[in-house]
Amino acid sequence: DMADYFVDKVKTFLNENKDKPFFLYYGLHQPHVPRTPHQRFVGATTMGPRGDAIAELDWCVGELMAELRRLDLLESTIIVFSSDNGPVLDDGYADQAVELIGNHQMCGGLRGGKYSLYDGGTHIPLFVYWKNHIKPTTSNALVCQMDLVNTLAALVDQPVRPELDSKAMLDVFLGKSQKGRDELVLEAAGRLCYRKGDWALIPPYDGPKFMETEYGNLDDFGLFNLSADRGQQNNVAEQNPEKLEEMKSDMHKAVQNYYNALK
Prior knowledge:
The protein is α+β, with helices and mostly antiparallel strands and about 260 residues long. It has 8 helices and 6 strands, in the order H-H-E-H-H-E-H-H-E-E-E-E-H-H. It starts with a helix and ends with a helix.
């Protein structure tokens, strides 16, 4: 009953705040474990509880949209739908997620997954919807969820702490610009990697090389050109020594002498 319970809470909040500005964070449970979709969604897909939970998630978002539409709030409400990290298939639950996935690629062809420093662990879905303000488009701009803080603050003319690592990028989120961040530091399982333009740098870390998905624990620095190698299959550090040193130096500065801390 969790989905129904939280949807009702969302609708109650919207009705109580429809006549004034509001911020709503709606944390969906699906498809996190334990995957326990309501009985009316059981069998909705061919992928067992995992697929059925995602079908339930879709219903939850639909209920939110329908309530905003009913309250005539869609044109004055920005909706952001996103995830906290890349996907994981096998969580140790006997829910047949592995057996029933078929040909579906949960990372969309990216390498890695949850806990991984490869793009499959840190590149997440992020949709922004604002009726009659955003035209449907796909953006390749480099942004992160932290940027929503400064962006939304700028939109409503509110101050933010200057030390916060957040960039105001309203035009990017509204689909009017493809100019995102120049660089971005990413984290997975307490380890950091670095992205600048089309290039990604993964420092060497001790630890397992594989779990369900590849961790990105490399014996030496990994350098990947994402425009030429979207799936990060080719470490081109040896072929690009100057770019490697440039990326290492830039990450070192961005994270305040990070490599010294590693040693």
